[in-house]
Model the fold of this input.
Amino acid sequence: MPTSNVASSAATEPASRSLWSLGWQRLKRDRVGYVSLWVVVFFMVLGAAVWSGLLARGWDQEVGNPNTAPMWAAQEKLQHTGTSDGMEGATGPIIRLTPAEDPIADMLAAAEHNKSKYQTMEAPKTDALILGSDQRGRSVFEKVLQGTGTSMLVGIFGALLSVALGTVLGAFAGYFGGKTDDFLMWFYSVFTSVPDMLLLLAFAAVAGRGFTTLILVLSFTSWTGVFRLVRAEYMKQRSREYVQAADAIGASHLSRMFVHILPNISHLLLVQFSLLLVGLIKYEVILSFLGFGVGVKQVSWGSILGEVPTELMQGYWWQLLGVVIMMSTLVTAVSMLTDALRDALDPKVK
Amino acid sequence: MLGYIIRRLWQMIPTLFGVMLLVFVVFNWVGGDPSYILAGKRLSPDALAAIRAQLGLDQSLPAQFWLFVKQVAHLDFGLSWSLQQPVTRILAERIGPSLTLTGTLLVVELCAALPIAVLVAYYRAKLIDRVVTIVCTVAMSVSSLVYIIVGQYVLAYQADWFPVQGWYDDSLLHSWLVFVPLPLILGLAVSLAPDVRFYRSFVVEELQQDYVRTARAKGLSERVVLFKHVLRNALIPVVTTVASSLPFLVLGSMLLERFFGIPGMGNELLAAVDKSDFPIIKAITITIAVATMVFNLLADVLYKWIDPRVELK
Done:
């Protein structure tokens, strides 16, 4: 849609524009929201590239020397190599046992002799990594990218599942009312009377680790907000005229719920989705940090942050830097996008 | 009013039943058979059978559930699997340190966040409001973990202004003076930004009401309008939010407790999840759920008490 004729087209045909196209127009006019939209899209593409193996496939390869500083922080690197060879001052004549005194001299000689047989070819290690390397010599840049992929995967699918769960349950509760509503409200009150983090930890305690369990656990605890909202909307919408009209032409309950009413509240769901996206990414980071999130062979921002406290004391700050930059950018962009979406899609704001 | 409270208490029973069912399903059904873990290295059929009988695992699922309900009713959650001590006693010991930290945090946070919120709401859309909003957005984008990690490293390890971690088991006051300040500062750093934004929205909403315009029109000074009229109304949602957040105090600030070695409920919960110590997790979940329900009721009653316009259904 070209922006030049917004005013004229809105003036000539105001009735024919859908909520979504009007919302899109408003979002485009909101500069901050529009930029954040593209930042979020960029992160999603990044995430997709990481899952499909286009990017950061070799994150677990030990390509560099352990704990090398980023290549643009050369000063730091010099200091680091200077201190790591702290044993230099202690070079003196090494006093060895004579072969006669040494009880394992024969074995040592044999080991020395056989050493060449077991030698492994070692790839040359590099010092020039854009964000340095971790203690095993893995590239921090690739690790952080892989972590971004994990966060996007868990965040997006967790939020999708939560929204789906909350929507279906909320639709049934709000549309049918009565006994169904009572039962689902009971279900809801049970889940809300336990704080989120506690419920997450309780599920995590029995569920083990890995992406799938993480996504399931997060969505089982996070559907309640969507449920409340959707239920209230369905209670409001079910007696509207268009639903009665749908009833009159013989639409079934399910078709009225999900074909007729659902599109009318879909903009609310989009806002909920982006709210949940930020929330779940934050939860995932904390869970993985505590060791209840991704598996030991997977990496996420949280598990990287778990390595940071001990690294900081040794003066290795680059893993922290990488995670903070990526995570703050994403979280800020999604939060601003949420605000912009709310402004753009809420029909009451004209 | 009394009728309302009784009705609400009555409604808690099915919810509590649901929470117990949820906890039971999660730990006894999904969680599987713990007797292999408990039997340890000396695994013999006799030992396994004895442990199963002791935990009631040899009975049917409904019978096991009934056992659990009786446990909850007697407030006796059995022995911790890892420590072999009564769960109730462990939790009673952990509650003090948690409240020492989070109680202080709550008070300091309210005293810090409310004035800032009122100030920026009063100067809405002016420079100071925009600056604070941007600072809050940026501050909220950084994970709370990062604040704690960096804060502990810079303020305690590098600058040596505070102890890195620890707790005196014998004296809460002593611990409060020595070990609470740094977690307090970091807890404040984490929660100040979201709280300021949250409270600001209440004050902004009140400032747009008609009574504010009337008060100004009849010539009241801005100070009287702000503190006598607006603040008193804006405090209503603040009070109820705080009241319903009180159960979280009991749970403590889990991450802070973990980082600073404070022997509170949150730390105990994390240790229990780490060691798959189900009785402790179950006991904490049930306790917090009950506390949440009671404090939600309290919040509603409080709401009615400070704002007589509210009708309780």
